[in-house]
Amino acid sequence: MADPRLFRLRVRYAKSGRLALLSHLEVARSLERAVRRAGLPFAVTNGFSPHMRIAFGAALPVGVGGIDEFFDLYLTDYVAPEKALAALAAVSPADLMPHGAAYVEPTAPAASVACPLSAYRVTFDGPIGRALVVPEQVEVVRKKKRKVLAVDDFLVGDIRACEDGCAVEFTLEAKPTGSLRPDVLVEAMVVKTEAGASSGKEQAAGAGGDMRADASAHEATCAPLPAVRSIVRISQK
Amino acid sequence: MIQTDLWPQVQRLARRAERPSRYLGSEWGATRTTDADFSFCMAYPDTYELGQPNQAVRILVNAVAAMEGVAAERAFLPAPDMADAMRDAGVPAFSLESCAPLREFDVVGITLPHELAATNVLELLDLAQIPLRAADRAVDDPIVIGGGPCAMNPEPYAPFFDAISVGEGEESVPELVAAVWAGRAAGESRQQILRRLAQVQSTYVLSLYRVLDADEAQRQSSWVVPLEEGVPPVIVRRVFEGFAESDAWEPCVVPFAEAVHDRLNVEVLRGCARGCRFCQAGMMYRPVRERSVDNIVSAVLRGLDETGYDEVSLTSLSTTDHSQIEEILTRLNRACAGRGVRVSVPSQRLDSFGVQMAELVAGQKKGGLTFAPEAGTQRLRDIINKNVSEEDLFCAIDAAMAAGWRRVKLYFMVGLPGETDDDVKGIASLAQRAYDRMKAATPPDQRGSLAMTVSVALFVPKAQTPFQWDGQISREEALRRVGLLKRSVKYRAVRVSYHDPQTSFVEAVMSRGGRACADLVQAAWEAGARFDAWTELFNEEAWRTAADKVGLVPETIAEATYDTDYVMPWAHISAGVTQEFLAEERQRAQEGLTTQDCTFDACTVCGVCMQTGTRNQLAAPRSMPEGGRERHG
Ligand code: SF4
Questions:
Q1: How far is the CA of B600 from the centre of ligand 1 (A)?
Q2: pTM of the prediction?
Q3: CA B477, CA B124: separation in Å to the nearest integer?
Q4: May I ask the CATH architecture of the domain B241-347+595-625?
């Protein structure tokens, strides 16, 4: 991939607002079209059906935004980064707006693996009011096959509460063998945390009068969680 | 007036939907007018991926948006999962630009792209919470206008629309919008506004006509007659005369979701006068109007710059017929070199696909090449006026193989009027000999990658064509003929694929049915039919139930054959091509006589130019490449 005659421009952008609902492929296609609209001197691959030489950072799932995403664009001519950025910004949808551009070494690691650590912020519609329960493992379906992932293999550090208890942050590490999607983990944590609540209630209802005091004690901690408003990747390292 | 923003509700549902990008709007190129006094929404009765690339949606939104003070937006039918979720949540169908309920728009246009979209029209109206029948709509409900190819026989859709615009809408749709606006501004009733619409050329306003019974229709030469003075007894299709001179760059939206034909489309010419007797498009887009080379080339380059697409398709019914296609392709190939841009031509004409063309469109090689001989024998090709010979096909194959193609797809129809078993076997024979030719024209070490597909569809009689009087064969007979074809193909490398005759049957019913068919459509939708064009969603049972409920025998509608003096249910609609010409063409078909193309030869008096006050406009005189098209007349 490293061609010394080409200039490797790393463009940083945000995936925000309603466009957080785009898939990785849709984002990639849209960025590529923005590059063409911007009239940048992009390099094309050789061969039967030549296409733009562009490489994207680690994928975000549908519904997950990102404030500092990036892609590497290979140019045949040097363009001052601020000029390239201005040209791109002029032809980008507001919710897929580039905000930085700088050249990187042609030999630097590929964009898709350059930053294995991703920090996410999950914002809820209201205060969560208790610690989220992290499941030991989550089950995912990939290409129609069920797979069980151990959360510990991917989760780095704790789940940190922030924004007056209305949001949490956590960091996931991508492995060469695969990664754990942040939205999947959030869903699993919500289910696990709320399950604590409902099993407590069931117990109370089934066991009769003397359990009632116990049940109401549970209620403060075990009510359904507020809805998830957004999941955003806030940084990548 | 549009005012509600449904986005907060839509967002919640879109998040859980199969493909949220269908519902987001805010694509590059989409424009939103916020300070408009009047509003128009152009709706497509299928999902975003199918509707967004539709030319009518693109052109008409642009045409209305150009009006001062009018907001023009787009809407598509949500996919089944989203539609169900919206019903559960009470969220009505919405536009993309403002995410406003459809029912808040002053005018809603729905294009009718093909016969299998009928139940989707009802699905869309129902989701939009607009009364299904025009007669039930209240003063402040939108005026719902239909149009598109199915306007050639609007009867099965008639009661669901306030008005149907017949023909090309570039000029008529803004006129209709202006008329509604004037009526609304004057505080008029719905009926008064509809009367205004009837004054706009090429508009069919159903409520201003009386429906006759079958006997009276035959006596009066029409199934509907005007109820009042000043309402046209025959509605002649609108032709956009300025097409050739108008800018070939039609601004477009660049979708996020992967759409069908997701590329820049530039319409290079309109109309086709080849005169295939089964083809509705060939009758309803005449006369032929070519845009100039400069117009086309500059539109492509500008379009690529403004959209960022990496592929451009030069669209029309028969692009390689453009008198200057070689110059267009040469200039575009040169201008696009090194940019990673593909220039493609949608369908290849057998008789104009020479060596030079093969090289000019070589960029499409990997997709395979598609030719449409339509019938297996020369006898039947003469009947349908498909003026290509076996030699044309073989020469085209030689040129294609020499230029590096390895995959060929041939389109045929079964059930054409006059077809015999010999014609069916002729398809197999032609395909196999074409395959031999592919082999002979390919170096031995590359023959392993050769592939041929024979794709067969069931003939559907279409309104406003010479074969409109000819019935469709039954589904059992269709399957028998396909079986015969399959048995006749001996080569393993020749694959036969065929389209489900069940949906072709519904197409025939919708194409030929009269007003009674509207009840059938509604009953089918009520029984659960929607997305009939999606093979996996087609609900045969619903259509059966509906037919029983309304007491129609759909087989009669699809399969009956009539004499040319029989008055068909669309006699009050004219594509410009006269009924006399259609009748004569059918007669010539029965005699095995072909009819020439008026863009290469003399006028054959089809009537379009006289009735619409237009003429063919060619960028240069047309001529065939040597060897092609010697036989006609
Ligand atoms: S009227 Fe004559 S010239 Fe015009 S489209 Fe018909 S056949 Fe062609």
A1: 11
A2: 0.92
A3: 35
A4: 2-Layer Sandwich (3.30)
Q: Which run of H or E residues covers position B581?
A: helix B579-590
CA atoms lying within 13 Å on the CB side of residue B467: 27
Residue B7 with chain A: CB contacts under 8 Å: 18
A44/B338 CB distance under 8 A: yes
- Asked if residue A202 has pLDDT above 50, the reply is no
Q: What are phi and psi of A74, to 5 degrees?
A: -95, 125
pLDDT at res. B584: 97
Per-residue pLDDT of B106-145, as tens digits, reads: 999 999 999 999 999 999 999 999 999 999 999 999 999 9
Helix axes B390-402, B421-440, angle to 10 degrees: 30
Same domain (yes/no): A88, A24: yes
Residues of B in contact with A19 (CB under 8 A): 24, 26, 256
Residue with tokens 């159903």: B206
Closest CA to B525 of B559, B501, B500, B550: B550
Q: Is residue B193 lining ligand 1, measured as CB closer than 6 Å?
A: no
Ligand 1 nearest atom to the CA of residue B287, by list position: 5
Interface test with B, best of A15, A18, A31, A60 (most B CBs within 10 A): A18
According to CATH, where is 3.30.750.210 located in chain B?
Answer: 241-347+595-625
Of B616, B618, B632, the residue with max ligand 1 atoms within 8 A of its CB, to mutate for a pocket test, comes to: B616
Tell me whether A186 touches chain B (CB under 8 Å).
no
Range of the domain at A60: 7-103
Task: Closest CB to B340: pick one of A19, A23, A51.
Answer: A51
pLDDT per position as a tens digit, B17-41: 999 999 999 999 999 988 899 999 9
ipTM above 0.85, yes or no: yes
Q: Which two tokens stand for residue A97?
A: 């707006």
Q: Indicate the number of domains in chain A.
A: 2
Is A19 in contact with B305 (Cβ distance < 8 A)? no
